[in-house]
């Protein structure tokens, strides 16, 4: 059976590690990207050179028409969708809450919440047994920030991930009898490029002393949790959150 997986924001970090691991596990993978075309192409070539099937598609998931094009391209080039990883997300500069503008809040929610919503909706239309699909799995990328709040740094980002948590629970309940499992992973302090986007590339090293395991995590450690949730090994798991955070 051909397993088809779409990963949003997959050109780097957690998304890229998930793409590599999924391809090695037998998935035909769509690498979605928006800005990092060079990295997406490098990832695509590395997966294909290992003998696995993958494509890369540029699309802004905050744009409904581009999401539609993304999914129809996956349909035509890879086949029937089996799984979705809602990984794409953005982070803006560290800031106290009182200095967060409405425009910034809207940018963060447009990608992190609306984009994930649009992609989940398209995936459901293809995977739900209600629509003649064969079922499937959705894994949403939340964050420990949704629980911890990210005070003085990213309360807007934390709130967007709180919305993802609510969506995960709601969809799991709604789709449980339609053959679709919906779960989420909450990464903690993980070494990725995202911290540089917030203005502090070394943030993990600054904060890791507060992690019970006394270290930051690696993207592959998050990817492994994602792949387990996608797999048949998690066949009776839905509406569940895995914290990959070293205990923080």
Describe this structure in words.
With about 250 residues, the protein is an alpha/beta fold. It has one domain (about 5-190, about 220-245): Rossmann fold. It is built from nine helices and seven strands; from the N terminus they run E-H-E-H-E-H-E-H-E-H-H-E-H-H-H-E. It has helices at about 15-25, 35-50, 65-75, 100-125, 145-150, 155-175, 195, 205, 220-230, and strands spanning about 5, 25-35, 55-60, 85, 135-140, 180-185, 240-245. Strands 3-2-1-4-5-6-7 form a seven-stranded parallel sheet, sandwiched between helices. Helix 1 packs parallel to helix 2, helix 1 (about 15-25) packs across helix 9 (about 220-230) and helix 3 (about 65-75) packs parallel to helix 4 (about 100-125). The radius of gyration is 17 Å and the shape is globular. The termini are far apart.
From the structure above, extract its key features.
globular, 248 residues, Rossmann fold, alpha/beta, 9 helices, seven-stranded parallel sheet
Task: Give the topology, please.
Elements lengths: L2 E5 L5 H12 L2 E7 L3 H13 L4 E5 L5 H14 L5 E4 L15 H26 L8 E6 L3 H4 L6 H21 L4 E8 L6 H4 L5 H5 L11 H12 L10 E4 L4
Parallel strand pairs: 1-2, 1-4, 2-3, 4-5, 5-6, 6-7
Provide a short characterization of the protein structure:
The protein has 248 residues and is of the alpha/beta class. It contains nine helices and seven strands.
